[in-house]
Amino acid sequence: PGDEYKIFVGRSENASGPFVGSTGKALTETGGTLVLASHGNIYAPGGNSIFWQVIGISLEDLKLTEISRDPKSKRDVIAYHYRPRDDIRGDANSVLGLNYLDFSSAWPVLVA
Fold first, then answer.
1. Which InterPro entries match (predicted)?
2. What's the first-to-final CA gap in the chain, in angstroms?
3. With CB atoms counted within 10 Å of each terminal CB, which end of the chain scores lower, N or C?
4. What is the pLDDT of residues 2-19, one digit of tens each?
């Protein structure tokens, strides 16, 4: 316990880094900001992606005309897999987890 997968984020002003967490500490020095860890029946969340869907591309100027997150709510969605804690050592397959993300604090926070 404690060493299982967790989801951290970092950001940079440059695509090649350096990437830092919310405290300013580099990710290379374990400075990422925790987004999701084991809790309740969710054990070792990982393998995450952010759901994006491009809606409408102008082929004439190759510019995106609209980017939608969840098509209905227009919110960012994180997808990840986890193991059910009640069957960590059993035969259960990984489970798909989906949550909305809120960025009002400038860093992603999972919401229901």
1. GH43_arabinanases (IPR050727), Glyco_hydro_beta-prop_sf (IPR023296)
2. 25
3. C
4. 789 999 999 999 999 999
DSSP letter assigned to residue 32: P
What is the per-residue burial (b if ≥16 Cβ within 10 Å, else e) of 8-32?
ebbeeeeeeeebbbeeeeebeeebb
pLDDT tens digits along 7-50: 999 999 999 999 999 999 999 998 899 999 999 999 999 999 88
User: Which residues 6+ apart lie within 8 Å of 1 measured at CB?
Assistant: 38
- pLDDT above 70 coverage of the chain, percent: 81
Structure tokens, 96: 């798909």
pLDDT at 53: 61
Ordered alpha helix ranges (H), 1-106: none
Q: CA-CA distance, 104 to 60, in Å (whole number)? A: 35
Determine contact, residues 66/41, Cβ cutoff 8 Å: no
